[in-house]
Write a structure and sequence with these properties.
Layout lengths: L1 H18 L1 H4 L3 H23 L5 H29 L4 H10 L4 H30 L2 H7 L29 H12 L6 E6 L6 H9 L2 H6 L2 E6 L6 H11 L6 H6 L2 H12 L4 E8 L2 H8 L10 E6 L2 H5 L5 E5 L5 H12 L7 H12 L5 H11 L7 H9 L9 H10 L3 H9 L9 E2 H11 L10 H14 L4 E6 L2 E6 L2 H13 L4 E2 L15 E4 L14 E4 L20 E5 L23 E5 L18 E3 L7 E2 L12 E7 L12 E6 H4 L12 E6 L7 E2 L12 E6 L4 E2 L13 E5 L9 H4 L5 E5 L8 H4 L7 E4 L8 E4 L9 E4 L6 E4 L9 E5 L16 E5 L1
Parallel strand pairs: 1-4, 1-5, 2-3, 3-4, 9-10, 10-11, 11-12, 12-13, 13-14, 14-16, 15-16, 16-17, 17-18, 18-20, 19-21, 20-22, 22-23, 23-24, 24-26, 25-27, 26-28, 28-29
Antiparallel strand pairs: 6-8, 7-8
Helix pairs in contact: 1-3, 1-4, 1-21, 3-4, 3-6, 4-6, 11-13, 16-17, 16-18, 17-19, 18-20, 21-23, 22-23
Length: 854
């Protein structure tokens, strides 16, 4: 585990030597020597940790190496900070180029030289102790295999489109519970699913929640996760939002518990509903919500998942209790083999080994999928080694889940270890936004630049690898791509434990893990930054779910100068949301990620240009827009710019920019887009313009790297020719909201590689299918509100050869005709509730999942 931290620091030292050569010139050799010493230490660290030796001296020795690695990073970051003090970063760049030496810099060089010498002495002392106490001999007494079980398979390039989570073994359970959900009993009742952690309670609830019969029966559905620490008001707000009940966000935040209960109750009176209350730990949780859900004798249902039998059995006076069973041997083997044999050829010997290990999982799905995820990365000859490791740590002739999770973690590369540990920064049951997580991985420095690959793509591959190993669960898919994910409680506990041991992350919200706090902690999550945390000089990342910038004001700011990530998430419409951006924050020159969400900030100061290392600037707010200063153009490393932006956009020189959302067409039209060679995602809207305006795609044609393009226009606006998009070969996802009387005849030549298409308000007069079906790469198609006004659509033979999902929400459509041979890959059709009674769907689609939505 410590090897991940040391490897990370060693790589950063290498980056320093290359990138900061101008500053480090007189101590470059010392830094290189320090890097080499840490690399030598790594060899013993990996061996000691892999042997699992329970020896206090070994643990102390490894802990000391961790501290040296962290101190090394602190010394260099502090030195660079001192060199930059009093200068702006643009001026510093010229210092590097010209190799100018200032008196202050000479002093700093002398200071860093002494500190590096001290670090080297500490390493020498550790080497002496290793030899004196014969730590190698102690370590070699422990049995086990070394970490060198062969290199992990090269990260495969995962397709953007994924299948839903495997639900093997729940067929009978799902059938029984589905019958309870849709039976004619008019009274509302509770279905309680209970069982130990890792049995698949949430997975089964999801299977039911998304079942087409359930979707069609209930007018409204909602899902909320409770967890051990909850607030009733927060649960009620989240339920209201999940139900998509109309509300004013500002008013909703002002409501107290009684107001929220009344609002939810009144909104559901005339509707049949299903609500899933996931991960309940106390009976009081449902009791606190119960009166908000009316029993209108219309067949409404509540599903509760819990680990606790008493909670399940005493939830409600009308409760169907369902104890989730363990998987049978046949079910366990199918669940295991579907993943474990993806990358190796199955033979009799491997199958015998696999069955032997699966049997020891005693039918626990989480244990099985983690084991199969681990073995899927191993060569056939390495399966014996894994089996031997597991056998030495069995309890009562079965695999203990905690050891299996630990083993899966220990077999990760150091980059994947860091990414997994980072997940502990999120509160329990958090739905994690994938694109945000990827940007944080890059900002934290976990991602190594690989040849001809964008770092964000490498980070996405890391995330896919963790998903493949079943260490992360897919939560929500949008346009066929994983949009959000989450971490199982047991895996999150593992991440918290190891992150805390490394001083890697401290989650101050989680009361079970916040009793001990180290001043050398690197990353911190809390609601408000308490005074006692003011002096944390080693902090690299701060995540706040409330509060403001008070901790940066005045002298306090000096305690946070090494920050790389600052993320503040205000509660929606909170009265304490910050409305001004403090100048002090622009002194945090190491910042790579600055995210201030749902604040009331409307402009940024010119001094934002001091943050020359900034990669992500995220000021998105649901209720306010923001103006950007012209000095923003000096942020040459900026990769992601997110917010509701108004006014001039001085972004022409931001050649590294990959993401820009959300901007008005008026602002975008004035941008010289020729230099934005790396822009991959662009969101444009013109809802604020009242005059009829034609949208031109000419500026888009210059964006050679564009992958996702979303254009939303005011209903009077209309699109001109899509022909300029033919110059965008990378375009995969196109979302158009605005008038467009007809599609181009040669649409398949304009956007030949398109995989996702969403049309809304386009007002097409002709059937779009004859043109769309020629787009041979299309996988996902949405035809939404007023995109087509006709009554019939026809898909001809061999059309849509790769289409997997079709979503249609067209009030006037009465018939969808699909000729034989069309849509051969189609898996799902989603139609609107209003269409369900009148739309004729061909019999050929009978075997495909057809669901309705509101």
């Amino acid at each position: 585990m410590v090897d991940a931290v040391v490897s990370f620091v060693v790589e950063r030292l290498g980056d320093y030597i290359i990138q900061e050569a101008g500053f480090l010139r007189e101590v470059k050799d010392e830094v290189l020597m320090l890097k080499n010493e840490l690399e030598w230490m790594q060899c013993f660290i990996k061996d000691a940790e892999q042997k699992q030796v329970e020896d206090a001296m070994i643990r102390k020795w490894v802990s000391d190496i961790r501290d040296i690695a962290y101190d090394t990073e602190d010394v260099l970051d502090s030195y660079l900070l001192n060199c930059s003090r009093g200068h702006n970063r643009g001026f510093l760049a010229s210092i590097k180029k010209n190799s100018c030496i200032f008196h202050q810099e000479k002093i700093d060089l002398y200071g860093i030289g002494k500190k590096i010498e001290t670090l080297k002495k500490r390493i020498t002392d550790l080497k002496r102790k290793r030899e004196f106490y014969r730590l190698e001999d102690i370590c070699n007494k422990g049995e086990g295999t070394s970490n060198d079980l062969g290199k992990l398979k090269e990260l495969r390039r995962v397709t953007s489109f994924v299948v839903e989570e495997n639900v093997i073994g729940f067929e009978d359970d799902a059938k029984v519970l589905l019958g309870k959900l849709v039976e004619d009993e008019p009274r509302r009742f509770v279905i309680s699913i209970y069982g130990m952690g890792g049995l698949g309670k949430t997975t089964l609830a999801k299977k039911l929640y998304h079942n087409s019969a359930v979707v069609n029966k209930f007018h409204r559905r909602a899902w909320v996760s409770v967890s051990q620490d909850y607030k009733t008001e927060d649960l009620l707000r989240r339920i209201i939002k999940s139900f998509r009940i109309s509300y004013s966000t500002i008013e909703l935040e002002k409501m107290n518990t009684e107001d929220l209960e009344r609002h939810l109750h009144d909104s559901l009176l005339e509707h049949s509903y299903l609500v899933v209350i996931d991960d309940v730990w106390q009976r009081e949780a449902w009791e606190s919500l119960k009166r908000s859900f009316p029993d209108s004798n219309n067949g409404s249902r509540v599903i509760i998942t819990t680990r606790i039998k008493d909670v399940a059995e005493r939830s409600d006076e009308r409760t169907h209790v369902h104890k989730l069973r363990f998987l049978s041997q046949d079910e366990s083997w199918k669940l295991f083999s579907d993943k474990a044999f993806r990358n190796v050829t199955r033979d009799e010997g491997l199958e015998e080994l696999g069955r032997e290990m699966v049997q020891k999982c005693v039918g626990l799905p989480l244990a099985i999928v983690v084991l199969s995820g681990l073995l899927s990365t191993k060569k056939p000859q390495e399966w014996h080694m894994v089996r031997d490791q597991i056998w030495r740590h069995m309890r009562n002739d079965s695999i203990h889940i905690s050891y299996l999770l630990d083993l899966s973690f220990s077999n990760l590369s150091y980059q994947l270890k860091l990414c997994f540990l980072y997940l502990s920064i999120y509160p329990e049951d958090t739905e994690i936004l994938v694109e945000e997580l990827i940007r944080l991985f890059v900002a934290e420095g976990f991602i190594t630049q690989e040849k001809d690959q964008v770092m964000e793509d490498v980070a996405k591959n890391h995330l896919d690898e963790l998903i493949d190993r079943s260490l992360i669960q897919i939560e929500r898919i949008y346009h066929g791509k994983v949009e959000t994910c989450r971490v199982h409680d047991l895996l999150r506990d593992l991440a918290i434990e190891k992150a805390k041991e490394l001083n890697f992350v401290h989650n101050y919200i989680d009361s079970a893990h916040s009793n001990v706090f180290s001043t050398s902690c690197r990353r911190l999550y809390c609601q408000n930054l308490p005074v006692l945390f003011i002096r944390l000089p080693s902090l690299r990342s701060i995540f706040l779910s409330a509060g403001g910038f008070d901790f940066l004001i005045g002298a306090n700011c000096r305690g946070f100068r090494l920050l790389r990530v600052l993320y503040i998430q205000y509660y929606e419409a909170t009265p304490i949301a910050c409305n001004s951006f403090p100048e002090e924050a622009t002194k945090l020159i190491h910042l790579k990620y600055l995210g201030i969400r749902n604040s009331c900030i409307t402009c940024l100061p010119p001094s934002i240009s001091h943050l020359q290392s900034l990669q992500t600037l995220d000021f998105y707010s649901f209720n306010s827009s923001i103006n950007l200063p012209t000095e923003l153009s000096k942020l040459q490393d900026l990769r992601h710019l997110i917010g509701e932006f108004e006014g001039p956009l001085q972004i022409e020189n931001l050649t590294n920019l990959q993401t820009l959302k959300f901007v008005s067409y008026q602002s975008w039209a004035k941008v010289n887009t020729g230099k934005l060679i790396n822009l991959r995602e662009l969101h444009i809207d013109s809802y604020s313009v009242k005059d009829e305006v034609k949208f031109s795609f000419d500026s888009i044609a210059k964006l050679k790297s564009i992958i996702i393009l979303c254009v939303e226009l005011f209903y009077k606006h209309f699109f001109d020719s899509l022909e300029p998009l033919s110059h965008c070969p990378a375009l995969l996802d196109l979302q158009l909201d605005g008038k467009m009387k007809r599609l181009p005849r040669d649409m398949h030549e304009v956007v030949p590689n398109l995989e996702c298409l969403c049309l809304r308000n386009t007002g097409l007069e002709d059937d779009p299918m004859p043109k769309l079906e020629k787009l041979r790469s299309l996988i996902f198609v949405e035809l939404l509100y007023k995109s087509y006004g006709g009554k019939k659509m026809v898909c001809t033979s061999k059309g849509f050869p790769r289409l997997e999902k079709l979503v249609v929400d067209l009030d006037g459509l009465e018939e969808l005709q699909v000729e034989e041979g069309a849509m051969k890959m189609l898996k799902s059709v989603v139609i609107s509730k209003a269409m369900s009674s009148k739309l004729r769907i061909p019999e050929g689609l009978g075997s495909i999942s057809v669901t309705t939505r509101k």
